[in-house]
Amino acid sequence: MKSRRPGQTDLSLDVHWDYVNRVEGECVLTVLSEQLHWICELGSCLSSELVDRVHAPYQWTVRQVVEHCVDAERIFGDRMLRIAAGDKTDLPAWDENAYADARFGLGNIGHLISEFGYLRQANLVLLGRLVPSAWDQVGAVDSHPVTPRGIAWLAAAHLQHHFEIIERRCEIMPQRKPMS
């Protein structure tokens, strides 16, 4: 199965494995799709008071964290596309703090939630149209080997990591998956 859990050649950094190993499931397309429900539910639990407050010991507001997840989703999509296409360019790392400091996400938190949803849907469509061999293409990000499969699992793990922190910070428990 092309969207199976990653193998040793899909990710090369221990920190990425630490995140990915916390994600449940066997099909990344299912995990990524179910997370769309989670972001909608999380957004409905966030009051304006919670969104713009920095909760110690963190340095970003919840709005900045959500904006960071939006930016990361966009970057993950670009990396998946380029590597799946066989682009051998060593893709650069990105400075997440510069993006957070730019504060593009000022305004309605609902707009950020919507933007994330559109990006995630676009990434799901992209992954759905990849031929099986494209999932195994090896590229590099900051000189670290990675495949589109590895990046897809990392996208799911990254969102899970940040949303779990938001839940703890704000003491909320949104429903994470659609009811069966």
UniProtKB/TrEMBL annotation:
User: SUPFAM superfamilies, from UniProt?
Assistant: DinB/YfiT-like putative metalloenzymes
The highest taxon in the source lineage is: Bacteria
Q: List the InterPro entries hit by this protein, alphabetically.
A: DinB-like (IPR024775), DinB/YfiT-like (IPR034660)
Q: What Pfam families does the entry give?
A: DinB_2
Q: What is the protein named? A: DinB-like domain-containing protein
Which Gene3D superfamilies does this chain map to?
A: dinb family like domain (1.20.120.450)
Give all residue intervals belonging to the DinB-like domain.
Answer: 45-166
Residues making up the signal peptide according to the UniProt record: none
